[in-house]
């Protein structure tokens, strides 16, 4: 079916047409950019957030437009209805860096070598040994200085070579995986294995784009540590009848005897990027082989009718225990890694699986009008359905799904990404955070906490790179301001327990430093090597950067699944979906769209109404 190329062609055509429509709508009365997105001016006498205060914390005298004056910066921004003042952008970049530094320094001071920082009481946190059933903690915290490891490449991306070098040495000298910790294979893979590999790639990069990130006498220690961890995770792939891994392993003893046979699809099927990189760096196919076998096993269990997968499966029987199909928890990174595996390793079967999955998503999960930016009807929304019937299962969407516009950017579906992102941004504007679940029918949160997740800012960053529309800088500023206002506490940034009351939990998850702060920083850092042409980076699902590199495309071993590969390659049409990185998508939105709202104001208002904002 040639629908993808058709859609891409139509997309390009539509972009041209919309440029004109946007111009007309933006020039209409009362619809100016800044009027729809007024800056939240601080109350009289309020010096504004710390990053915009003059030295000494005092607001500067009115009339002086010095470098760090809140009012002056806003004046600049308000005068310009579409653009974003470079000075404000630089201030926000520094603010994002400051946010990271505050969280990181406090972790190092109060928590290291423990896994996480409790930012309210300025203490460290490790696994909950007293309560092994506390999976919320124990799945993630392995007693291996998780936050330090997860933060490594953010230090590099921010150009902090001295701290990066210090942190790498600390990891090498102090971290061991020989621990009696039962962790989730997925979490250990994306947060720890992925970060070790990313840092190793940065250290050994001959170009050193972030400054000098080399380590004296470096002898591939991080790669060896990554291998050691992955070997400890391998028992999860043994004694499973389907090849789908057990969800948890004990790092010392392997799969616990009382282990659960049920796993979520994302947890079992999003290991290929990290395991594939590890295999290719080591020249040992084992890791990639087991991860790929898991993906294929899950893929073979999809519904014959809808092509959809469920969210929980029994690894021995292959029966779907959770029949819900959606884009959020339980499935999110499964889709993401089909595409990203293709981008990284170039195997067409991964792209074909992604294409098929994307088609089913569009057919069964997507509701609302056909085009994001034209026509009548509700805005597009991706709902949760029964994988076999395609029937709606509930009326909530979760905050994890906010990553999906970013993925759509990678495949060139920028228009659709704009709409879904706008929906999540409207929810953010209403609560100053994203509730874990939002019920679009009741216009209210179903699950109220916000653990500093990165997904919305990740999509914001990727959409900005694709469109260069300053609207997304405004979104980023909004997010940054809310984080400062509602989540900053004495020793870091805290999970919101209740997005309406803004009560807090004493926890700062490691992805706050590895993803949320990194994407915010990159959004405002115009010159960062990550998005400069000539460099090609891809983000893992935990936000770790890996270079899209020829050495990952060449495997040193014979293809492990030759028959399927051949069959799938035959089916691929030359003009079908091209996977693209964000920079190659930058030309997709024409110049005339760049300084206008990415979404027509009537549609923007419609979304605001649907979320109860107006
Ligand atoms: C991160 O650990 C990863 O992004 C993962 O894929 C799911 N989401 C969390 C952060 O929300």
Automatic annotation (TrEMBL):
<dbReference type="InterPro" id="IPR044674">
    <property type="entry name" value="EDEM1/2/3"/>
</dbReference>
<keyword id="KW-0472">Membrane</keyword>
<dbReference type="Pfam" id="PF01532">
    <property type="entry name" value="Glyco_hydro_47"/>
</dbReference>
<dbReference type="GO" id="GO:1904380">
    <property type="term" value="P:endoplasmic reticulum mannose trimming"/>
</dbReference>
<keyword id="KW-0479">Metal-binding</keyword>
<dbReference type="GO" id="GO:0005789">
    <property type="term" value="C:endoplasmic reticulum membrane"/>
</dbReference>
<dbReference type="GO" id="GO:0044322">
    <property type="term" value="C:endoplasmic reticulum quality control compartment"/>
</dbReference>
<dbReference type="GO" id="GO:0004571">
    <property type="term" value="F:mannosyl-oligosaccharide 1,2-alpha-mannosidase activity"/>
</dbReference>
<keyword id="KW-0106">Calcium</keyword>
<dbReference type="GO" id="GO:0016235">
    <property type="term" value="C:aggresome"/>
</dbReference>
<dbReference type="GO" id="GO:0045047">
    <property type="term" value="P:protein targeting to ER"/>
</dbReference>
<keyword id="KW-0834">Unfolded protein response</keyword>
<keyword id="KW-0256">Endoplasmic reticulum</keyword>
<feature type="active site" description="Proton donor">
    <location>
        <position position="187"/>
    </location>
</feature>
<dbReference type="GO" id="GO:0036503">
    <property type="term" value="P:ERAD pathway"/>
</dbReference>
<dbReference type="InterPro" id="IPR001382">
    <property type="entry name" value="Glyco_hydro_47"/>
</dbReference>
<keyword id="KW-0326">Glycosidase</keyword>
<protein>
    <recommendedName>
        <fullName>alpha-1,2-Mannosidase</fullName>
        <ecNumber>3.2.1.-</ecNumber>
    </recommendedName>
</protein>
<comment type="similarity">
    <text>Belongs to the glycosyl hydrolase 47 family.</text>
</comment>
<dbReference type="InterPro" id="IPR036026">
    <property type="entry name" value="Seven-hairpin_glycosidases"/>
</dbReference>
<dbReference type="GO" id="GO:0005509">
    <property type="term" value="F:calcium ion binding"/>
</dbReference>
<keyword id="KW-0812">Transmembrane</keyword>
<dbReference type="GO" id="GO:0005975">
    <property type="term" value="P:carbohydrate metabolic process"/>
</dbReference>
<dbReference type="GO" id="GO:0006986">
    <property type="term" value="P:response to unfolded protein"/>
</dbReference>
<dbReference type="GO" id="GO:0006511">
    <property type="term" value="P:ubiquitin-dependent protein catabolic process"/>
</dbReference>
<dbReference type="InterPro" id="IPR012341">
    <property type="entry name" value="6hp_glycosidase-like_sf"/>
</dbReference>
<dbReference type="GO" id="GO:0051787">
    <property type="term" value="F:misfolded protein binding"/>
</dbReference>
<feature type="active site">
    <location>
        <position position="332"/>
    </location>
</feature>
<feature type="active site" description="Proton donor">
    <location>
        <position position="436"/>
    </location>
</feature>
<keyword id="KW-0735">Signal-anchor</keyword>
<keyword id="KW-1133">Transmembrane helix</keyword>
<keyword id="KW-0378">Hydrolase</keyword>
<feature type="active site">
    <location>
        <position position="455"/>
    </location>
</feature>
<feature type="binding site">
    <location>
        <position position="541"/>
    </location>
    <ligand>
        <name>Ca(2+)</name>
    </ligand>
</feature>
<comment type="function">
    <text>Extracts misfolded glycoproteins, but not glycoproteins undergoing productive folding, from the calnexin cycle. It is directly involved in endoplasmic reticulum-associated degradation (ERAD) and targets misfolded glycoproteins for degradation in an N-glycan-independent manner, probably by forming a complex with SEL1L. It has low mannosidase activity, catalyzing mannose trimming from Man8GlcNAc2 to Man7GlcNAc2.</text>
</comment>
<keyword id="KW-0325">Glycoprotein</keyword>
<dbReference type="GO" id="GO:1904154">
    <property type="term" value="P:positive regulation of retrograde protein transport, ER to cytosol"/>
</dbReference>
């Amino acid at each position: 079916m040639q629908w993808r190329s058709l859609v891409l062609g139509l997309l390009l055509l539509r972009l041209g047409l919309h440029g004109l429509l946007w111009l007309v709508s933006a020039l209409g009365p009362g619809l100016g950019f800044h009027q729809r997105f007024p800056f939240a001016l601080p109350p009289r006498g309020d010096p504004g957030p710390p990053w915009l205060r003059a030295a000494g914390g005092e607001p500067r005298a009115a009339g002086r437009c010095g470098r760090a004056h809140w009012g002056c910066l806003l004046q600049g921004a308000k005068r310009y209805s579409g653009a974003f003042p470079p000075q404000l952008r630089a201030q926000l970049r520094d603010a994002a860096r400051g946010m990271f530094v505050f969280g990181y320094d406090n972790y190092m001071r109060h928590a290291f070598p423990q896994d996480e920082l409790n930012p309210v009481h300025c203490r460290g946190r490790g696994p909950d040994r007293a309560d092994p059933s506390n999976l919320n903690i124990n799945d993630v915290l392995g007693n291996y200085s998780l936050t330090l490891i997860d933060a490594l490449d953010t230090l590099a991306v921010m150009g902090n070579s001295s701290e990066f070098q210090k942190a790498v040495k600390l990891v090498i000298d102090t971290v061991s995986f020989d621990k009696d910790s039962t962790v989730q294979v997925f979490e250990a893979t994306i947060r720890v294995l992925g970060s070790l590999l990313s840092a190793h790639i940065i250290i050994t990069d001959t170009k050193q784009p972030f400054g000098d990130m080399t380590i004296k006498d470096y002898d591939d220690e991080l790669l060896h540590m990554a291998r050691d961890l992955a070997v400890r995770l391998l028992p999860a792939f043994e004694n499973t009848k389907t090849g789908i891994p057990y969800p948890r392993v004990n790092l010392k003893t392997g799969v616990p005897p009382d282990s659960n046979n049920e796993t979520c699809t994302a947890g079992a099927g999003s290991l290929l990027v990290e395991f594939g990189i590890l295999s290719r760096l080591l020249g040992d196919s084992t890791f990639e082989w087991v991860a790929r076998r898991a993906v294929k096993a899950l893929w073979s269990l999809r519904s014959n009718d809808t092509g959809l997968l469920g969210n929980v499966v029994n690894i021995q029987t292959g029966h779907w225990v959770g029949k819900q199909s959606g884009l959020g928890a339980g499935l999110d990174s499964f889709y993401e890694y089909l595409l990203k595996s293709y981008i990284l390793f170039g195997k067409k079967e991964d792209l074909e699986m992604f294409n098929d999955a994307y088609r089913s998503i569009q057919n069964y999960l997507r509701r609302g009008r056909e085009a994001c930016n034209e026509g009548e009807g509700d805005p597009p929304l991706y709902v949760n359905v029964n994988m076999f019937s395609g029937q709606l299962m509930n009326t909530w969407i979760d905050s994890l799904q906010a990553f999906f516009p970013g993925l759509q950017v990678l495949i060139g579906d920028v228009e659709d990404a704009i709409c879904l992102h706008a929906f999540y941004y409207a929810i953010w504007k209403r609560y100053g955070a994203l509730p874990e679940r939002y019920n679009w029918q009741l216009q209210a949160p179903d699950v109220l906490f916000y653990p500093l997740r990165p997904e919305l800012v990740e999509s914001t960053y990727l959409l900005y790179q694709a469109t260069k529309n300053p609207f997304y800088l405004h979104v980023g500023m909004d997010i940054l301001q809310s984080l400062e206002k509602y989540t900053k506490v004495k020793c870091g940034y805290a999970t919101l327990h209740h997005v309406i009351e803004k009560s807090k939990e004493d926890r700062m998850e490691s992805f706050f430093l590895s993803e949320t702060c990194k994407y915010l920083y990159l959004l405002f850092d115009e010159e960062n090597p990550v998005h400069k042409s000539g460099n090609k980076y891809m983000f893992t699902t935990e936000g770790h950067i890996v270079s899209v590199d020829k050495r990952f495309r060449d495997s040193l071993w014979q293809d492990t699944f030759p028959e399927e590969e051949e069959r799938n390659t035959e089916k691929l049409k030359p003009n079908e979906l091209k996977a693209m990185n964000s920079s190659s998508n930058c030309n997709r939105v024409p110049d005339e769209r760049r300084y206008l709202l990415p979404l027509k104001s009537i549609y923007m208002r419609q979304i605001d109404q649907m979320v109860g904002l107006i």
